[in-house]
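Helix-turn-helix transcriptional regulator
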Amino acid sequence: MATRIGSLHDLAAAVRGRRQELGLSQAQLAARAHVSRAWVNAFESGKPAAELRLVLAIVDALDLELQIGDREDGPPRGAAVDLDELLDDYERP
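Predicted structure tokens:
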């Protein structure tokens, strides 16, 4: 399932959802990605800035991929995203 990511908060919610889906603790994910647990916690909590290489390490550790494409049918720039709905998508079977 592809999820549109429009902000760092959206990405953090997707990472948290995938981590929980895989049954990983923050410490386990941190070990897989070679980052600190504190960094994972801060990122998932909406850290206002994150180093791209660390974000990519987390994405890779969760067997996810980032794709870049045209926004032809996506939400307009600056559109609000319902993070609760995004997290609910990860909890549905």
